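Format notes (please read before filing issues)

Several people have asked whether sequences and structure tokens are stored in separate files. They are not. Every record keeps both together, in the order shown below: the sequence lines, then the token lines. Line labels are part of the format and must not be stripped during preprocessing.
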Amino acid sequence: MRLPNINKLKKISNQARKLIIEVACCSKSAHVGSSLSCVDILVSLYFHQLHISKKDWDKRDIFVLSKAHAAMAFYATLALKGLIKPDILKAYLQNDGSLPAHLDKFTSKTIEASAGSLGHGFNMALGMAYGYKLKNDRRKVFTLIGDGESQEGS
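Then the structure lines:
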């Protein structure tokens, strides 16, 4: 396994944090803390670990954000990765906007599962991983859960 370029990942994480703060200010949104707390994980996944390319989309690794309250962090990471258009971030949590506060898989093909109810994303990711295993599909499935859903438990 190749080692990550830590300085590059730190720089991208800082760019994501800046985007999160800008989006939160424009939208007057809550959930800033939950978004900021997972930036480094998302950046590490999307810029080092996950196999994702537009050319090879049907063979991509899968990521499910079970901690859907951190949608701003996810959207910022996707924008920096070039998987969604950065100007779409202005539509976060806005009337007639295209980015909801909790993930909706119909928003973008880069969002694998709708989430918001604590603990459901983990179970969906587990089902996806098992389904791919049954098909002998070698792609990987990753999920990120938060402390609240670990305490609440679905």
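For reference, the curators noted about this record: Strands lie at 62-65, 141-144. The chain has a mean pLDDT of 89.
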